[in-house]
Automatic annotation (TrEMBL):
Residues passing through the membrane, by range: none
Family per record: Belongs to the PPR family. PCMP-H subfamily.
Gene3D superfamilies to which the protein is assigned, alphabetical: Tetratricopeptide repeat domain
Alphabetical keyword list: Repeat
Protein name: Pentatricopeptide repeat-containing protein At5g08305-like isoform X1
PPR repeats: 78-112, 179-213, 313-347, 348-382
Lineage: superkingdom: Eukaryota
Gene Ontology process terms (BP): RNA modification
UniProt GO molecular function: RNA binding
Keyword Transport: no
Gene: LOC101508122
Pfam family, one: E_motif
DNA sequence: ATTGATGAAC
C-alpha cells in the first residue's frame, strides 16, 4: 500500500516538474527543478530528463555542456536524447562534438534515425568538412533516407558551405519535391561562392521568395563588393518584397559602410528602430562599424556605449578599437583595449591587428613592439597581416633599416602589402635608393597589379628620372596589365555620386571640375575668400599639381 | 524534435 501511494506522489511530483520545466526561462531555474527531480529519484526518468536535456541543449539561454553532462549519466539514452545532444552541439561553437558523439553512438550500436542526419550534416557544414559530409551522405543513401526533404536540404547546404557547388546542385537536381528551403540553400550557395550571375538567376526563377531569399541575394552582392547593387536590391525589396529583418540589415549596413554612405546608414538605423527589429549583438556591431567607416566615430561610440558590457563579445570590441584606430584616435583606441581586458573579453588576432594599426597611425613604435610580443605570448601565431602592420609602423616612423631587417627575420615569405608599406615609408622619408630596390621587388611579387608599377614610377618621379618613370608605364602596358580606373563616392542628401578619374559623364561634371580647380588653386596660393571659383576650369593645372600629392 | 541568412582587420 505504502509503495503504491509513494509512487503516486512521485508521479504527481513528476507531472508538476514537467509543467514547470515547460515555463522555464533560465539555466538557474532549470538547475533548481533538476535538483528537485533528482531528490525525488527522477534522474533516469525519461520524460523528465528529456525536458532537461531539451531546454539546456536547444533553448537560447541553454548550456549544451550541462546538457551533455546530464546525458552522460544516463544508463541507456533514447534516440531522442542522442538527437538532442547532437542537435545542441551542431548549433554550438564546437560542432565537431556532434560528430564525435555520433561516432560513439555507432560504436555502441545505436542506430540513428531520419532526424539525426540533418543535425549531423549541419555540423559538417558548419565545420566546412566535406569529408565527414560525404561519408554521412553515403550512409544516408545506404539507410534509404536520401529522399527525405529535410536531409536533402541540409546536404545542399553542406556541399555549398564546403565550396562544392556542383555537389550541391546534384542533390538539388535529384530532388522530387523542392521547397523554398531547397531553393534558398541553392541561391545562398551561389551567393557564397561569389557567383552572383547564377545566384541572381536562381533568385529570378524562384516561385516564392521570403526574407531569407532576399537577404542571401543582398549579402552575396555585398560579399562580392557590389555594394550599390546590394542597395538597389534592398530598395526593390522594400517595394515588392517581404519586410526586412535584422539579418537583412546587417548586410545592408555593411554595404553602407563600404560605400561611406553615412546618411543612408543613418536612415537604416532609423529603419531598424522604427520597425522594432531586435537589436542583436551582430546588428550593433554592424552599426558601430558602419558609423566608424563613414567617419561618424562619435555615433559609433554612442552605439557601442549603449551595449551593456556584460553582453559584449570580441567582435564589437574589435570594431570600435579598429574604428578609433583608423580615425587616428590612438589613445582612445588603446584605452578601450584596456577596458576590454578589464571586462574580461579575450582578445584575438584581429584585436592585435587593430592595435598595431593604431600604433602605426600614432607613431607608437615601442607600443607596437609590445603588442607584437604579447600576441605571441598569448599563444597566437602572427599572420602576414600582423607582419605587414609591424612593417608599416616602422616604415611610417622612418625606421627603414629596422623595417627591412624585420622583413628579413620573419619566418614567412614577404608579401606585397609588407613591401608596399616599406615602399611608402621609403618615399615619405626620402630613402630613394631603398625605395627603388623595394619597388622593383614589389613588381616581381605582384606583376599583375597596376598600382605596383605606379609605385615605382612615383619613386622615379620624385627624383625626376622622367624616362625611368615613363618606362614603368610602358612595362605595364607591354605585360598587358590593365590599369583599373580610380574612383570615389560622394554622398549628398542620401544619393551616391560616383567619380572616376577624368570622367566627364556626371551631369554636374563641369561645375565639379571648376570647383576642384578652385580648391587646388587655394591649396597652392592660399585661400581667397572673394573668389567663387567660376573661372578655374583648367584641367592641366589639376593633373600637374595632383601628381605631386 | 529536423533543413536555409548576419558582425570585427586587410
Amino acid at each position: 500500500m505504502l509503495g503504491v501511494s509513494s509512487s503516486c506522489i512521485t508521479a504527481n511530483i513528476c507531472q508538476t516538474l514537467l509543467s514547470l520545466l515547460g515555463k522555464c526561462k533560465s539555466m538557474l531555474e532549470l538547475k533548481k527543478l533538476h535538483a528537485i527531480g533528482i531528490s525525488f529519484g527522477l534522474s533516469q526518468e525519461d520524460s523528465f530528463i528529456s525536458k532537461i536535456l531539451y531546454f539546456s541543449a536547444v533553448s537560447n539561454s541553454g548550456d549544451i555542456d550541462y546538457s551533455y553532462r546530464v546525458f552522460s549519466q544516463l544508463y541507456s539514452p533514447t534516440i531522442f536524447s542522442w538527437n538532442i545532444i547532437i542537435r545542441g552541439y551542431s548549433n554550438s561553437k564546437s560542432p565537431i562534438h556532434s560528430l564525435s558523439i555520433f561516432l560513439k553512438m555507432q560504436q555502441l550500436g545505436v542506430a540513428p534515425n531520419y532526424l539525426t542526419y540533418p543535425f549531423l550534416v549541419k555540423a559538417s557544414a558548419r565545420l566546412s568538412n566535406q569529408e565527414s559530409g560525404v561519408s554521412l551522405h553515403a550512409q544516408i543513401i545506404k539507410t534509404g533516407h536520401e529522399s527525405d526533404i529535410f536531409i536533402q536540404n541540409s546536404l545542399i547546404h553542406m556541399y555549398a558551405s564546403c565550396g562544392n557547388i556542383i555537389g550541391a546542385h546534384k542533390v538539388f537536381d535529384s530532388m522530387q519535391g523542392k521547397n523554398l528551403v531547397s531553393w534558398n540553400s541553392m541561391l545562398d550557395g551561389y551567393a557564397k561562392c561569389g557567383d552572383m550571375v547564377l545566384a541572381h538567376k536562381v533568385f529570378e526563377s524562384m516561385q516564392d521568395r521570403d526574407v531569407r531569399s532576399w537577404s542571401s541575394l543582398i549579402d552575396g552582392y555585398v560579399k562580392a563588393g557590389e555594394y550599390r547593387e546590394a542597395m538597389a536590391i534592398f530598395e526593390k525589396m522594400q517595394v515588392v518584397g517581404p519586410k526586412s529583418n535584422e539579418v537583412t540589415m546587417v548586410s545592408v549596413l555593411s554595404a553602407c559602410a563600404h560605400l561611406g554612405a553615412l546618411e543612408k546608414g543613418r536612415m537604416m538605423h532609423k529603419y531598424i528602430v522604427n520597425n522594432g527589429l531586435p537589436m542583436t549583438m551582430v546588428l550593433q556591431t554592424s552599426l558601430v562599424d558602419m558609423y566608424a567607416k563613414c567617419g561618424a566615430i562619435e555615433d559609433a561610440l554612442f552605439v557601442f556605449r549603449g551595449v551593456s558590457k556584460s553582453q559584449t563579445d570580441v567582435f564589437i570590441w574589435n570594431a570600435i578599437i579598429g574604428g578609433l584606430a583608423t580615425h587616428g584616435l590612438v589613445e582612445e583606441s588603446l584605452k578601450l583595449f584596456k577596458e576590454m581586458q578589464m571586462v574580461g573579453i579575450r582578445s584575438d588576432e584581429i584585436t592585435y591587428l587593430c592595435l598595431l594599426a593604431a600604433c602605426a597611425h600614432g607613431g607608437l613604435v615601442k607600443e607596437a613592439w609590445y603588442f607584437f610580443e604579447s600576441l605571441v605570448k598569448c599563444g597566437m601565431t602572427p599572420t602576414s597581416e600582423h607582419y605587414a602592420c609591424m612593417v608599416d609602423v616602422l616604415a611610417r616612423a622612418g625606421q627603414l633599416t629596422a623595417a627591412y631587417q624585420f622583413i628579413c627575420q620573419m619566418p614567412i615569405e614577404p608579401t606585397a602589402p609588407m613591401l608596399g608599406a616599406l615602399l611608402s615609408g621609403c618615399i615619405n622619408h626620402r630613402n630613394l635608393d631603398l625605395a627603388e630596390i623595394v619597388g622593383k621587388k614589389l613588381i616581381e611579387l605582384d606583376p599583375n597589379n597596376d598600382g605596383r608599377y605606379i609605385g615605382l614610377s612615383n619613386v622615379y618621379a620624385v627624383v625626376k628620372r622622367w624616362d625611368d618613370a615613363r618606362s614603368m608605364r610602358e612595362a605595364m602596358e607591354r605585360r598587358g596589365v590593365k590599369k583599373s580606373p580610380g574612383f570615389s563616392f560622394v554622398e549628398i542628401s542620401g544619393i551616391l555620386h560616383r567619380f572616376i578619374a577624368h570622367d566627364k559623364t556626371h551631369p554636374d561634371s563641369e561645375e565639379t571640375y571648376s570647383m576642384l580647380n578652385f580648391v587646388v588653386y587655394q591649396m597652392i596660393h592660399g585661400v581667397r575668400q572673394d573668389n567663387r571659383g567660376e573661372n578655374f576650369l583648367n584641367d592641366t593645372l589639376i593633373e600637374d599639381e595632383l601628381t605631386l600629392f
